[in-house]
Each structure stands twice: as C-alpha cells, then as structure tokens.
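Researcher: For the annotation table, I need structure tokens for BCR activator of RhoGEF and GTPase. Please keep the output clean. Sequence:
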Amino acid sequence: MRKWVLSGILATEETYLSHLEALLLPMKPLKAAATTSQPVLTVAQIETIFFKVPELYEIHKEFYDGLLPRVQQWSHHQRVGDLFQKLASQLGVYRAFVDNYELAVETAEKCCQANTQFAEISEVRKRVKGTVKVTRSTLVLHDLLKHTPISHPDHPLLQDALRISQNFLSSINEETTSRRQTFKKGENRQLLKDSFMVELVEGARKLRHVFLFTDLLLCAKLKKQIGGKNQQYDCKWYIPLNEMTFQGPEEAEPLTIPQVPDEELDAMKVKISHLRSEIQREKRANKGSKVIDRLRKKLSEQESLLLLTSPSIPLRFYNKNGKVMIRLRLRNQYFFCISVRHVLFFFLIQRYLQSKYTVSPQGFKTVSLTSMELQMLTSSCIKLQTVHHIPLSINKEEDESSGLYGFLNVIVHSASGLKQSLNLYCTLEVDSFGFFSNKAKTRVYRYTSEPKWNEEFEIELEGSQTLRLLCYEKSYNKTKQNKEDGDGTDRIMGKGQIPLDPQSLQGKDWQRTVIPMNGIEIKLSMKFTSREFSLKRMPSEKPMGVFGVKISTVTKRERSKVPYIVRQCLEEIERRGMEEVGIYRVSGVATDIQALKTAFDTNNKDVSVMMSEMDVNAIAGTLKLYFRELPEPLFTDELYPNFAGGITLSDSVAKESCMLNLLLSLPEPNLVTFLFLLDHLKRVAEKESINKMSLHNLATVFGPTLLRPAEKDSKIPANPTQPISMGDSWSLEVMAQVQVLLYFLQLETIPTPDSKRQSILFSTEV
C-alpha cells in the first residue's frame, strides 16, 4: 500500500513538473528580449509572471529525483520520510508564490490581450497553483501515514511533514477567505471576518452571526429553515465603520449583565456529557435512528443553551451618528456578551479601524444602504460566510474526536520571521466545551528578533481539541498598566492554532511542529499523557523524599501536622501571588517545577531562597504536583465513592450531614492539610476581582487533584491500544470531583469536635 501511494505521488509530480517546464520554456527568450531595444515584455512583467516558478521547479525536481529510485528499488524497509520532511520545510517558497499568484495571472492576461502568443502562457500559469499542490500533498500524506506502522522510522518524519503542511494550509485559508468579495457595480466591499456572537437585547441573550466587511459591520440572525428552503439571514442592524466607536469599561455607564451561576453551567455540561455517552451507547447497541435522533435533539438544545449562557465578557460599541437600524434600550449602542474566543474578533475590528489601510485614500467611505441594497448584502452572506456552523456536537463529523483528557506537555522553543527587535512572550490556550482558556505564559524575551524561550509547560486537558498560541509584544508603559489591566496594554503580534489529533499524539515521543502567524513562525514540541495513565500512582524512589510518599509518613517524619512543602508553597503564594492573574490555573515552567521538586525531595536547605527567586506560577505548579503524586489522594481511595455519592443528594440537610461526617472521617494528616489548604483557597478567591480566580475556578483546578477514584475503580480501559481520547466518562468523573471541593469551599464554617481545627491550625508544631 505504501508503494502504491508513492507511485501515485510520482505520477502527479511528473504532471506538475511538466506544467512548470511548459511555463519556464518561454522565460529565457523573454528575458533576453527584455534587454534589447524592442522588448516583448518589461523586466518587471517577466519577474511578476514567473515569480518563484524556477525555485518551485528545482524543489520538485529534487523531490522527484530522490523518490523515483527509492520506489523502483522498493522494500518494506525503504525510507522516504526525509524527502517529505524536506519538501514541507520549503513551504515558504509556496507562500511567496501564492501571495503573488493573482497578480501574476492578471499580468499574464493583460499581456495576452496585447499579444495573442501569450494566451498559452496565461493558461499554463493558472494551472500551476501552489495551494492546490500542497492540498493534494497533504491528502496523500494522510494516506501514507495510514499505511506506515508507528514503529517505522518514517512515521515521525511523515507526521512532522503533515503538521507543517496543515499549518501552512490553515494560514493560507485564513488569508484567502478574508479576501472574498461581494460584487456590486462600482464597489469593492470585502468580507474580512465572520463569527457567531451572543448579543444582549433588552436583557435577553440572542445568538447572532456578525460579518465584518471593509466598510461596515453587519449583525444578522439565521432564519429557521421551513419546508426545505435554503438558509436565509435576517439583518438586525449594521454600522458603517467610519461611524463606529468603542468604549472601555471605565468610560461606559454601569450595566448589570445577567450572569448564570457556574454551578448551573456545570449542570449543563453534566447533561451534555450524559447525552453524548447515551448516544454512543445507543449506536453500539444498533438501536433505531429515531431514538438517536431524539437524543441528538436534546443534545443540541443543551449545547445551544450553554453557548448562549456561557459568554460573560462585556463589549459595547456605538454608532457615533445615531443611525440605528433597530430600536435598542441601550440608545445608540450595541452590547455583546462574548467569550475569550471572540475577543480577537473585536480586536481585529479595532486594529482595522486604526490601521493605515482604508477603502479609499480619503478614508472609509460613508455608507448608506437602501433597503434593497441591504437585502442583497444580507443574502450574499450565505455564500460569503466562513463559519458555517454553530459550534455544536451535532454539527461535527461522526468520526470527529470528542477531545483529549489528560496532560499535554508543550515546549515553546523559539520564534523566527520578526523584522525588528521586540520584547516578546507567548501564551498557550486550550479549549473545553467550545471555550478557550489561558493555560500558560512564557517569560518575556527582551529586545530581540530571534527569541529562544525553550520553556516547557504541563497543561491539563478536559476534552480539548485545539491548542492555540498567541504572541505578544510586552508594553512597559507603567503609567497605563496596573494589576487589574493585566496584559491589556500589550500588543498582539499574531495567533495560530493546531488541532490536537489523538492519532498523531498517540506515541510517547515528542512531536515537533511549527505554528505560522502573520509572517512569524513559532517552533513547538508536544507530548501527551492520557488521564488514565497520568493518574497511575508511582511510589517514590527516594524513601526520604516527599513526592510520592504517604502524607502520614511525611508528617510523622517532620513532626508536623501539615507537610513542610504545603506550608512553604502556600506561604510564598500568599506573600506575592494572591493578585497574580490565573494563579493555580496558569502553568508554571516545567523545569522550574522539577527543580523545586528535587529540592524538596532532597531536603535542600536553600529551597526557600529558590522559591523567592522563581515565578509564582512554578510554586503553584509544584504544590499541585505534590498532591497529584500522592500515592493515595487526600480524600482517600476508601472514602472517594462516598464523597461522589454524597454530593448528589438533593436534600440540603442530609447532604451537609453526610459531607461533613465524611470529611471528619479522613485521617488526621489528610484532614488538617485539607483545612489548611481550604482556608488559603478562600483567601485567594477573595481577590477574584484581580486574580480572576473564583471559588469555582479553584475547585476546577484542585478537585481532580485532591479527589480521584482508586485505580481498580477508575475507568482505565482494559485494552491498552484503545484510543487515548476517553470521552465523556472522564468528564462526568471530573465534574463530580469539582462539585465536592466547591461544596466545602462554599461552606462558611466547618465545625469540628472540640474546636480541634483551631488548635491544630495554630499549633506551634505546624
């Protein structure tokens, strides 16, 4: 099968090379004539029409000449991965070729009108299209990987080539779709971006599809399809860009946004996970389509509800001239509740408004559409839209992954392609239930055009399908920046993302990839550990260490009630981390965490000095790692099922009695350590307005760490070859763990017999 796929590649390469040869044939005589007194074409025209064609020919000739003898002398041990990897590494030539493509064809056609002998050149030039070639190569790489065993030396090289090709196509697609046009006589309106949003209209949340054109912003609602009719949009309003203005929170009038409690959002996620599991169960049982259709309808309703209620970031913009298309209670302003994923959409609008590029030299044209023109523009949105589906499971392909559950280790290596020296850092985000959250941040690499971070992060995944990376230029304007602004004054340089594919992340080896963004390339390495294997508890190799050692053993050895590592980490975080945005949620650098782990395990006397010099996120990460590596979780294997059952009780009195009795049944070191941590987490949540860590956020971070099922009770697959994406069973397990911790965080006081807790916490032994 591998030989058959490669034979097909050779055939397409021969065709592609023949097109390139046909195009290059007239180039030399045309160049020679250009230097005479009667040139057929100018030098500039020749360079435009044949731009990067010789380079493409050399690249593909070298690839073909290298591949042909290997296929002719075929054996199952034959290697070809290096050829594909080298071909993928030269995609920068395609980028330049694609950027020049339309201009080259246009120039050839103009020359053709002046001289018919150029008709053939123009036709061949159209056939030599770089994106089509890369698309075909990417599809072929999929086929080749499918038939290449994981143990074969070619497998990692082909994976690398495929990732580079996919990232290239993704960046090209983003740019080309932004250039799509709506055609109208005498007008050059282009669609830059479109996205689904949640609009707040008279206190009610409404799902909208927003289209950003080069001269206006249009908000539309997708009409319900009746009787097999085609999709249609209904325009709710539009604002010409020259009449639009934004207002920040400090300028706008106070407005109460109706928020849905985190507990209700969690309940929706639980229902969604249950429904997904039920659909899979019915499919395996080969039940009738009516049952599955009914479940899918319920799933769609729940996911739509979650989509409407989750966004919470307020964003207002105004029509300066008061020309409103619909009546809103908020006067001439438009108000959106958006999620993190939408911030960049509106950032694009602001940057576009501020940019030097305008529709005409005089600036943005004044737009005033008649009802007929507005109807035509709205109708054209059906063809122009780049986001075709609301992000629901029901719109996904049947075989699409439900996401990864476990830990993703990411090394951010370096950046290239910068044209000037800047102060740069990167943030890493992953998605869960369709919403992205920030998980890690590199240090700022000061004033360089070639930053080399080489920083490793461990990111927890909860049904994640995409890793997103954003690159920022750090602003050091202290007059504008304060704690609450966070990184608000920093300038975004670019963003890119890669799919988290379960198959490509199956192996234990690091996978290298490159994320292109606005001319910048960020080099990464990734390695995934599924949750079922990350939670396997390994006993400590250091008998006198603290990681992987029972908490009772450590406290007895130290003659304390709370382990020294817990006290030291919490003390340092309370000293300088309480106002750190995303404390405990944002990952620390893995090498720093490992250094602290070694220091605590070897009883290094300088550990407090080390901690004072380290990033506070690394200290938070060390504390989380300590709890995760306990041979038995803090809430114990024995009591875990009882906690998971107690939290589901509907009667509040019975629940409180059950949960408190269970808590007080924990061994003393476990109980005292938990209460010590609990008090600290409540103090962290008191700073929520600054650090953005609510009680629910903290429960989400610590719940799965402090509560875990015993290995014999966990949902680890019996078959080790089962795909690493565990689906919704893990999601349900995690949500129960979060709810248990949240319950205790929300209790004002936890009564203990004879005020034992007070004497423990304030004992000199601690």
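Researcher: And a one-line annotation?
Model: The chain has five domains: 1-179, 182-248+311-360+367-396, 260-308, 404-476+490-533, 551-712+728-760.
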